[in-house]
Amino acid sequence: MGVPIADQATELSASRRITYLHGRPSNYDVEERPMFATPTSSKAPLEDEITAPKKSPHYSHRAPWLRALVLGGNDGLVSITSLMLGVDAVVMAESGRASVISGVAGLVAGACSMAIGEFVSVFSQRDSELADLNIERKELLLAPDVELEELTQIYVSRGLSYYLAKQVAEELSRVDALKAHARDELGIDLDELSNPGQAALASAIAFASGGAVPLLAGSFISSYPYRLASIVASASLALACFGAIGARLGGANIFKAAFRVLSGGWLAMLITYGILRLIKCFFNM
Description:
single chain, mainly alpha, elongated
């Protein structure tokens, strides 16, 4: 005669409540533990432990203004230093008045030239950007579907699937279609259009700051050899500092950049001084 189903269930339940200690059965009635117990921990949940990764510094966005700053400063420094050395190579006067006057004239003329040149250049760039934006604005009004497909194909060319690219293009166009086309099709950031006045002022200040170094170094020394040494030493130190600062802001090697800028400055000074000395000797000045 078989065991009733109810009795089988009772026996099975009782057997599950028996635990084994050191391989031997124990008849103590202990509470059954679940087969897949979840370990408890005092740590915070996983999502609380995850922190946002630190962003690595990027330097490419600094390139335009960094280039203008370094170019203007080095231009003023090398130009005025070479100009004063060239005048001293011909005049060789103890007072140094001619050298200082030529330095002041070169400083004013160079700063104005840099400002005007930068203003005209950046203004032309801004005009081109505005012209492209006007064309794009008209195309968006006349053929929005064509422009949407064009934007989609741009994202497809960057690696997105057509479906995802279409979705991205539609979402961005819904927010600001002109801004999306300007950024991804024309490469123009509407939030950072070129500013001619700012560029002109920055170039003039950078040139004047660089040119003021040799001018101040040579203005208060009357002795010719000491004045020459002071101008060259101050210019060399400033060139190295310009190179190091530019490299630091741009994430490049400081010593290589300083040596590169210093070598270029020395070469310009040597050429200017040498040519003017030859002219003095040739014409018996």
